[in-house]
Amino acid sequence: MRALQVTEFGCPEMLAVNQVDKPQISDTQLLIKVAYSGINLADTYIRKGAFPGLPTPPFTLGMEGSGIVEEMGAKVSGYEKGQLVAFSASQSYAEYVAVDTSSSLDWEIAVPVSLSPLIASSVSMSARTAILLTQRLSNAARKVLVHAGAGSVGSVLIQLLKAKNHEVIALVGSDEKKEYVHSLGADRVLNYKQEDVQKIIKSEYPDGLDAIFNATGGSSIARDIDLLAIHGHLIWYGFAENNQAPDVETALKIAFMKSIKLELFNGGTRSKQDNISAIKSIESLLLERKIEIPAHKIYTLEEGVNAHRDLESGNTVGKLTLQL
After folding, report:
1. What's the longest Cα–Cα distance across the chain?
2. Angle of helix 248-255 relative to helix 220-227, nearest 10 degrees?
3. Relative orientation angle of helices 272-287 and 154-163, to the nearest 10 degrees
4. Alpha helices in the chain, H assignment, sequence order
5. What is the pTM of this model?
6. CA-CA distance, 155 to 184, in Å (whole number)?
7. CB 227 within 8 A of CB 208
8. Residue 218 · residue 245 · CB < 8 Å
9. What pLDDT, in 10s, does the model give residues 78-114?
10. What domains, with CATH codes, occur in the chain?
């Protein structure tokens, strides 16, 4: 079968379509014929070798998608052949993927859904992350800042927050994205590359922000700590800039009397049942047309290099997807 693989850690050009063996499933696994594979920013981190414990290249990239159940192991129940599932599992940039129903990895799941295959390919990782993030907020949080508002997580997160009547300030990387993010419901949208985010927010929200969802890392962490209100909550869940947080110790000392909360969030550590429940909640909201998953572009497997280039350019909005 064809698979898009990391041949060496590094730039997008290190990706190549190779012929690999079709998975042979065990008694507890599903064999899924992949329809679409979602592309996530975390895939670019893995391609660069930025995560610990990665396999030695070459290996197949990807962590979510949708597809049809083609085979079931002898000990698998609750599924039917020919059933469409949304799944999260490693090596999804391939024509087939094996998902272990008894996996010790709580994020490795396959969930039957009543969605289109394209939409289903985006619910088990990025959209699931968005809904799990909203569950971290207290009922008292009203003014909320969302980094990467035009991204695959941010675009869903904004809609979920607005559905719960939060006031949403969103950050984007270009003026072209402002109108798009406003259309998702954001009350205020700032271009962090052109505008002084810290100065503007301090002026317009002098009491500070109740919560911040930070997908960026780097120098933005210390700045966000400064922007929090008393009892404010900063949730750091990604590192588009980098995984460092310079000056954070100084920022925390200054903010000490505000009793703020700094949380490091990894959706993969939630329980399997929590993750399944999040996917079903997203499915219901989509079927009821209460939210949508904006799509940027669909790429072929051979266009995977271009997809990674586009994602890292900062010029995309919504979800990028591979069609198998």
Report:
1. 62
2. 10
3. 70
4. 41-48, 117-120, 128-134, 154-163, 176-183, 197-204, 220-227, 248-255, 272-287, 304-313
5. 0.93
6. 7
7. yes
8. yes
9. 999 999 999 999 999 999 999 999 999 999 999 999 9
10. 2-126+269-323 (3.90.180.10), 137-264 (3.40.50.720)
